[in-house]
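Journal club prep — side note

Before the paper discussion, L.F. wants everyone to see what a predicted structure for a comparable chain looks like in token form. Sequence:
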Amino acid sequence: MPSSLTRANLRTPKAAAIAGMAFSVLLIVVFRLLLTSIPADPQEPGSWLSTNSWKVALALNLMPFAGIAFLWFIGVLRDRLGQLEDRFFATVFFGSGLLFLAMLFTAAAITGAILLAFAVQPQQLIGSATFYFARAAAYSLVNVYMIKMASVFMITTSTLALYTGIAPRWLTVLGFALALLLLFGSFYMRWSFVVFPTWVLLISVYIFVDNITGQPKAVPKNGA
């Protein structure tokens, strides 16, 4: 049948699991650059623009590559699920991943607009209402909405992994715990940004090693 032939010719490469590792490393580097360049207080008038603009610009240039790698990571997970994919959880899993990426790019675009406006009119931008609005918008997107979508992605992925056996139980339990940490405590912990990429790194390393060793995929548990 044509569908069978297409599936036979379109095999996900084993090296595709490296995409999750690339995403994790890139996003940690991006967050590191941003956290050391932009003050945590969203009401800060923008003095960092005069000294740390190059760090922020570097982080924004790395952001698209992290996003591309994340899309590959989602594809790797869906391929690993295969016929075991549940429509309900798969919809939430896929939707939360895309929303996370969309808000990440939107916040990056707003921050990039701040840099461009500063390059044109540096004196007028610092401390202006326009700067405060853009800064608050980027802050809210990242710290409130994006981080919550990351936690939803972790919860649904861990649920799928738990009931299909595509990842070890300890990794799924860790995913639930870290997701709850992001969902309820991220606002109070600045370092919480590294939680999501670190968890993705652990998942990606497991999938990569499992693909290399050639171990068969686990089957669903009875009653799942």
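L.F.'s comment for the group: The chain has eight helices and no strands. Keep this in mind when we get to the figures.
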